[in-house]
Fold each of these.
Amino acid sequence: MSASPTKILVAQGGGPTAVINQSLVGVVLEARRHRGIDLVYGARHGVRGIVNEDFVDLTQETSHNLELVAGTPAAALGSTRDKPDLAYCQEIFKVLQAHGIRHFFNIGGNDSSDTTRIVADEARRAGYALRCLHIPKTIDNDLVLNDHTPGFPSAARFVAQAFAGANLDNAALPGVYVGVVMGRHAGFLTAASALGKKFPDDGPHLIYVPERVFELDRFLADVKATHERHGRCVIAVSEGIHDASGRPIAAQLAKDLEQDAHGNVQLSGSGALADLLCQEIKSRLGIKRVRGDTFGYLQRSFVGCVSDVDAREAREVGEKAVQFAMWGDRDGSVAIKRTGFYSADYELLRLEAVAGKTRTMDDAFIAPSGTDVTDAFRLYLRPLLGSGMPDAFRLRPAPVPKVLGRA
Amino acid sequence: MSASPTKILVAQGGGPTAVINQSLVGVVLEARRHRGIDLVYGARHGVRGIVNEDFVDLTQETSHNLELVAGTPAAALGSTRDKPDLAYCQEIFKVLQAHGIRHFFNIGGNDSSDTTRIVADEARRAGYALRCLHIPKTIDNDLVLNDHTPGFPSAARFVAQAFAGANLDNAALPGVYVGVVMGRHAGFLTAASALGKKFPDDGPHLIYVPERVFELDRFLADVKATHERHGRCVIAVSEGIHDASGRPIAAQLAKDLEQDAHGNVQLSGSGALADLLCQEIKSRLGIKRVRGDTFGYLQRSFVGCVSDVDAREAREVGEKAVQFAMWGDRDGSVAIKRTGFYSADYELLRLEAVAGKTRTMDDAFIAPSGTDVTDAFRLYLRPLLGSGMPDAFRLRPAPVPKVLGRA
């Protein structure tokens, strides 16, 4: 090792996912294979750890333990909700420069891609040779120009399995069931509930995504009609549903609105939306058995519900980021593109093309009714859920003639 | 087959579980092996299906499909929340008699065992030869004289995996996390959260079960102390926590108390308790990031989280019920007894010994602090969770010296 070793830094930001550590380990192990890299640093708790110089030396970790960490959900380095402004990004750059870091790998969603872009700008302006790579991660699946984003398939699998079970439970003890799913602007994760359906009368019978305006009266009419048809009703609702003015339905009842650093109202970590909708169904439709669940943090952190396709791709976006940086000498954002049914490859997008933009569901994925998905969406999502999806079976009807016949 | 074929009837009652269909299929397949049984009927939606003569002929189902149904959660025959009184049980008996049913197998919890007991009494009084067998099932694990009850281990596994993930998520983005778990009187399922811990500083850091009086001030002091020590706090709370007078904490805030046929206030299917506790922590401790999840129906119906030990035992209690009925010619309630570490056998208890009684956690399972479990509980529960439990790994510390050192 020379007097000034070549260092790279990797950080994780935003909400944890089931596979974000795969990307971390993909970076670390791939970087160790490159002669041009001597030390691999990790920032504790994302960009906050950078400005605090809170680094760990990942070069000193065993490859065996790294593999085990890769299979562990959440963010092994810790994460942060900080959304750096220009001054914050300038601080980040100063620290990277002081430590002689030559490659910055930032794993995260929209906000992380924007941070990566600003840091790259700062380095360019200072004439400091720094490669800045954004590695995609978000259960919301809302990065533009990406076929899908690592983390989403595993969360989608959790949602599909949860609704498959909720449907069976609801069929055993009929009533109305409302399951509230994460997703502020994009309905992909809520729509994944449709992949839990098998038989035509299975739930979810109604799916509400933020890509469509939510009208309470129409919702109640939908629930009433479904309940009359099936004697029960299973509903998937995005936490981000909103009225025609864009105001979240959840915000209309929360007394104390908590906002994060991005100015977003807190939608998760509260059962208020499910409880409101259940209350409306009970009081206005007179249905007695109405139950609501908010999937909350379980859908992104549950240990033991991972898509093997997702795990593999999350690993590869980390590996590819290092390869793009070392061989291509380019800044950019790694993206998954679909090349077969099912096969994927990776490309490097310009940071400006991805940063700060939000993808929502294509119209082609949402049924004209606005309360279901299309076959195009089912074909899009199914291969991402991976192998070994549990399946549900039912008894075939063989009714016995009545003897007393009083009922 | 003779002119009057020998018929048996099987029914499922109460809350669905991940393995209740194993017991159903255990009864059906074992009964088919006995020469003394010609037809196996199933009642749709439990005791309600009996009084309505809503039967299906399970003898006409393929053994292959039965095996697939066995691996499907919830109640394939449908369930009910009806709690029959004497008149209702007399109706049940009349229908059984009219159909010439000679063996009644009732899969369920406390209420189902009591129904089975009353129906057996009616048959005895009428001089009608009817064998009545109760087959245990409850995620609450609250049947007396049972080492544990089928359904509980799989739900416990879900809770342990959920808290293992919630702990990782909370470590990545520190704050306070409250997870509310099912269990009105018995804290077994909430206590199962402790099995998600691996490292000494892992959560859940605090566990609140209904076997101990809940005091809000003491709770807040516990949370404050934990948050100061670890910089974060993961809490498992039973939905059944109550004050010194026995009044549920959840009931103190619910405006519209819904009661079921048993006179129980609805505790599940609402996020109110988690939201209340989060609000208290935020407002009185001044902690900013506080999140609450209510595990709701996911913990009992999630497709794809089953303990193989639980599945095996649920199958066997069904098989043993038929064997006890055919060879022992006795009424009773099948129970699991532990014979090794880990091995189980089955015995037939008197219906009177089990019916209508509620088991709660032994004092030996609860730490003196009242907010943790003991090693005795860990040894009790661990083998029930089954094989292939996911494991969590973390990076080992290797801090990098600061260069700027401003923080």
Amino acid sequence: MADAIITPWEVKGTVDYDKLIKDFGTSKISAELKQRMKKLFGELHVMLSRDIYYSHRDLDAIIGELEAGRKIFIYTGIGPSSEMHIGHIIPFAFTKWLQEKTGANLYVQVTDDEKFLFKKERKLEDIERIADDDILNVIAQGFDPDKTFIFKDTEYIRNMYKLATRIAKEVNFSTMKSVFGFTNSTNVGMIFYPTLQMEPTFFENSYCLIPAAIDQDPYWRVQRDIAEKLGYRKAAQIHSKFLPPLTGIEGKMSASHPDTAILLSDDEKTVERKVMKYAFSGGQQSVELHRKLGGNPDVDVSFQWLSYMFEPDDKKLKQIEDDYRSGKLLSGEMKQILVEKLNSFLSEQRKRKEQAHKLVEKFMYTGALARKMWDTYYE
Amino acid sequence: MADAIITPWEVKGTVDYDKLIKDFGTSKISAELKQRMKKLFGELHVMLSRDIYYSHRDLDAIIGELEAGRKIFIYTGIGPSSEMHIGHIIPFAFTKWLQEKTGANLYVQVTDDEKFLFKKERKLEDIERIADDDILNVIAQGFDPDKTFIFKDTEYIRNMYKLATRIAKEVNFSTMKSVFGFTNSTNVGMIFYPTLQMEPTFFENSYCLIPAAIDQDPYWRVQRDIAEKLGYRKAAQIHSKFLPPLTGIEGKMSASHPDTAILLSDDEKTVERKVMKYAFSGGQQSVELHRKLGGNPDVDVSFQWLSYMFEPDDKKLKQIEDDYRSGKLLSGEMKQILVEKLNSFLSEQRKRKEQAHKLVEKFMYTGALARKMWDTYYE
């Protein structure tokens, strides 16, 4: 089997998550570490107990800081390339839980520059429109508006550029080539951009924890190489797997292939149609055969989505799994369970997005953390 | 003879200025073009009549615009790498004349980012200190404070970054490599930086004229390749030769080799000592021989400096040249003439620099053009 391709801009093939841990030099989140988190936080998020967040760097140090009563801060981001889909929400749902449990400041970088620079045909005004919509969807997660700063690179560059030049001075083209696969044909904006994605790890003088999908790891490898030279700390990460595309468990969902994704804007009928038509099934070819042989939840995308986050109740999930394996639960019924869960999630999301409009100013400019950040020039 | 090395960061060897015109694909400023300028402006600056500004691109188009009563704008810059020397003042003295004659808006870019990024050992705080001092020296030239905007890249980036990403998207690493001689070891800040030096050519929707030494030409070659794709005009340039170092006519003066340069901060005694001790002389080895054979003004740095700008009176300059060739004027006397001219220039510069302190706000933030620029976000 050919190796999967994993870069911040492309995920192709069947991802061997254990191999990524070896290739990237990260660590598996151990049972002992989970135990410490459970004790510290009073509970464990299902994305941790179910190994959706499965890999890390220095998470033990972060837990140690929190156990000792010291502060950490959290940093994540969103790339506004096209409308947000359900896979984009995973890190934010998890991050919301992290902020609740730690009380930490959260920085959300909206990488409008990156997404504009990355593809020739993209126009900046389209990216900005998408970015504004993404910001509403992020706010809808319910973060603390006085402890959360959401910023677009093209705006906050005014406070970031000086420190960005210090970061950029530590990284040459060779490094960018080998870490990100850049070539001589890569435009010079993309070559510079990673310095800006590294910079928020230096926003506070304490430990930074980054919850993100594992494809973002190259940035943090470079960050960890240069942080101490610049007088800062290496950032800690907690890496998630990718929510599989509707059409099968390979690769990553993409809003540019609408059949593979449920968009946050999809209405109830569209959700039902997409799941019924495209969700890859682990069932048998006929009801008779399914009743006799049972289905395979390991490749059934509807079951996988339920287990990623949409059925948080472990007992109920186990029942669904057992019933599917035994043939009691049919593929169509499995899909119906997911459709209901998705539509109830999306309906809630839409409602909170409506209310998010009036919070944009606070998260971006006038909340306690935002105000402090606009007064801070990083050098 | 090995070719001279000419990049924006290094000038070494004897510069063959005619060859540069061929290599860079620029044009000589013709007698006819000078005639048109003389008619238009009422006079010709000595740096034009004496071919210090000797090469151009599209200067004819600029003159055409002005003849037709249309507006142009002027853009130049200063790299704050070390204290300003007398060679740095040449483009500003000439630019002051250009603004007076054309009434054009002038943009002065202070490339603090570039100078920090370029050398490993440089600290940003030192660069900023130098930049602030350079700005005083620039203001001392007497520009129109309501038609001149002086800005540091690290500050004005807030208004420039969006358009910079559009520029950066049009330029890949291959181009930067071949135009600027960048390598895989070049840091990614330097690789991105040229987009910022190109951007001010897009500040107005009219023709841009750039007076600068010819080593800056690589930027304008790239600018001319991409300007029209981005919906802007190709920038016009007028290129000067380099004021030769005190120690001989090769290369370019450098403040990091204090013997080769007169710094704007040098006091009268220092100026006299440096010129007397280091200024390369075209004279003979003894007074007797000099009286008999005469001196050679073509290699005499003191004479060259007088002819670059410090003796603006053509008749007096001709007399000095003739007297030197005939042996009537001794090398020490030639040096004394230069010392007096330099000290009178520097005394005036110091006086105006003192007064410049109270104008900084206006040129950078509160003058009519500066206010407009801080309200303008380039996209």
